[in-house]
Amino acid sequence: MTPQTVAMLLAGGQGTRLGELTKNLAKPAVPFGGKYRIIDFTMSNLANSGISTVGLLVQYSPLMLNKHIGIGKPWGLDRQYGGVSVLSPYSSREGSAWFSGTADAIVKNMHFVEQYEPDELIVLSGDHIYQMDYTKMLEFHRGNGADATISAIEVPMDEASRFGILNTNDDFSIYEFDEKPEHPKNNLASMGVYVFNWETIKPYLLSDEKDEESDHDFGKDIIPKMLADDKKLFAYRFDGYWKDVGTIKSYWEANMDLLKEDFQTLLMSKEWPTYPNEENRPPEYIGETAEITNSLISPGSFIEGKIDNSILFVGVETMEGASVTDSIILPDAVIGKNVTLDSVIVMSEVEIPDGTQIVASNGDPVVISPDTLEDYIAEGGSHNG
């Protein structure tokens, strides 16, 4: 009954660059795509890849994330052996409970991995939007006799300095790893998806734990040490859609991408479904005055007015005369009569008063929370940028 592969899913990110969206919510738990949360994409990748032993490492504001994952039933992980286990930081005799880096999060939960005696450990992030068959990456890893394999994707050259860059030989063996280099040699970026031979990586984790100079991070510390020891590391090229929704703008862009024909398989693929943990809501109601163009309308919504190129989550209400364009309306928000929204993200349960106009400028979407809404109302109910 020992699984060949154990997955460790890092889901404790605070996501400070997402501002109001993560004020009281872990980044992987942020709503996405109408009826999903960001973590649903990685969880669905695991389910579709047949990986059924998963450790979910949580840290920052985990309440909603824990509730959402539950026993893992939507992803087939509600099982007696394996399944999903939520691994929270805990206090030990040695001191600090918080995870101080990606590698530290794994080493502090090494006992979870060890009980399964796996051949491989796959380390994943819970805050990326993508569809990936991990079994193909595992086959590539085994076929190359690799000690570690890092999934990589080509990014625009002018953005490469934001990522860990893999410098490779013709066979995709890695000879150098540059963590956010000022002058990158290429644009092949790490996706933060790692496969390690368990018996190979274990001593590196234990050694790193004792290193007081280390950041306890895979990209900054573990990978360079493995390369210095001439371990066999390979880059696994990924050619599909992948988005790190680390900023308000990238979060908005990733949601808007779902409305483009080229990317609709992210939600609608029968071969690679994305599984939500959705509430039981009634069907959406589309009223007589509703005009809907190229938008996603979720269950439980009550729609009047004009909706164009927007995503409305569950339980959203838009009133007569409302105009919503290029916007994301999170669960149970209410958009009043004759409201105009353009490139706006309205947070859950926010009620936009009648007649309010919020139009973003400079290409940056505006986030409306209960706190920021008060500022717009104080300015007279109208805002540009």
Automatic annotation (TrEMBL):
Record-stated family: Belongs to the bacterial/plant glucose-1-phosphate adenylyltransferase family.
HAMAP family on file: GlgC
PANTHER family: GLUCOSE-1-PHOSPHATE ADENYLYLTRANSFERASE (PTHR43523:SF2), GLUCOSE-1-PHOSPHATE ADENYLYLTRANSFERASE-RELATED (PTHR43523)
Pathway: Glycan biosynthesis; glycogen biosynthesis
Residues in Nucleotidyl transferase domain copies: 7-260
GO BP term, pick one: glycogen biosynthetic process
Protein name: Glucose-1-phosphate adenylyltransferase
The protein's assembly and partners: Homotetramer.
Residue ranges constituting the Glucose-1-phosphate adenylyltransferase/Bifunctional protein GlmU-like C-terminal hexapeptide domain according to the UniProt record: 288-358
Gene name of this polypeptide: glgC
Natural source organism: Salinicoccus roseus
Annotated site, Could play a key role in the communication between the regulatory and the substrate sites, chain positions: 59, 98
